[in-house]
Structure formats: structure tokens, C-alpha cells
Amino acid sequence: MTPNNNNGRSRTYTWQDPSPAAQAARKQTGLDFFNNMIQGQLPQPPIAKTLDFALTEADEGTAVFEIDCSEFHYNPLGTVHGGVIATLLDSAMSCAVHTLLPAGSGYTTVEMKVNFVRPILADTGPLRCIGTIVHGGRRIATAEGKLVDANGKLYAHGTTTCFIFSV
User: Fold this and answer.
1) Rg from Cα positions in the chain
2) What span, in angstroms and rounded, lies between the C-alpha atoms of 104 and 69?
3) Exposed site from 11, 14, 44, 61, fewest CB < 10 Å?
4) Helix, strand, or coil (residue 59)
5) What tens digit of pLDDT does each residue of 64-122 get?
6) What domains lie within the chain, and their CATH numbers?
7) In angstroms, rounded to a whole number, what is the distance separating the alpha carbons of residues 132 and 146?
8) For residue 50, which phi and psi values (nearest 5 degrees)?
9) What is the pLDDT of residues 28-53, one digit of tens each?
């Protein structure tokens, strides 16, 4: 049975073909790749458009994403869904790893732990998710991430392990 919804809301968004970015990722260092993305020379990935977040900073061993959560991020209990938070942390932490990779290298997340500290609502305001490398080895790298508001108040944090490989 479909509920009668008289307060329907909608959201429309567009994204660019991700193929050029995927090809560039194989040919550029991780840091060059992300800086080209931040400068608009390469498109942000479709997931960033879907969840309405963006990569805003990248440096050696660090990646920062920003989001201003909205009602469309909500779970059935009226708070931002944990999957949105986990996706932000995964993005920031794994991209921090990627900033240290040479051209021709890739990575994949093999393990991630997320701690949700407090609920996030549509009126929480802009949040920054900062990923920082902890250990960068030849095959395994680890990173940590923090999701904070403009005042530095912590909303979630996590750790990841990434497997590094040649592409």
C-alpha cells in the first residue's frame, strides 16, 4: 500500500560523466588528481552530487570534504542517516591515503570503523570531514577522520585501512 503523501518534496541534480576523472586518476599522482578536481578541471564523483557534498581541500596526507546536511539526508527517525556520515568519513580518509599515491596506483577500503558521537540535523549547519593519514606503507595504509562543525564540535570520527595496488 502506498501512503497518501500530500507534502511531497523533490530534488533534482545532475552530474558529469565520471569516465574522464577515472582515467585521469590512473595517470596522475593522487595529490595532482584531487587538486585538479578542486579547481574544476575534473568533475567531482557522482556520489558527491547524489549526497550533496564536495572535496574542498587536499594536501599531502590530508583530504577535506564539506557538507551542509538537508532533510533529504534523513533516516526514518529524523536525523541524518549514518550511511551519509560513513560515506563522508570513507571519502575523506581514503582520499587522504590517495593524496600520497604515485601515478599508476590505486586503493580500496578493506576495513572501516565509524563512531557516531551526536545526531546531525538539517539545521546543524555546514560540516567539515577531515581525513588524515596515520601510516602510508607500500601495500597498506591507515587513516583517521573527523566530522566537525564550524566551531570544531565533533559529530563523528573513524579509522580506515586501505589496500594499495597498481592500476
Assistant:
1) 17
2) 35
3) 14
4) strand
5) 999 999 999 999 999 999 999 999 999 999 999 999 999 999 999 999 999 999 999 99
6) 54-166 (3.10.129.10)
7) 9
8) -60, -45
9) 999 999 999 999 999 999 999 999 99
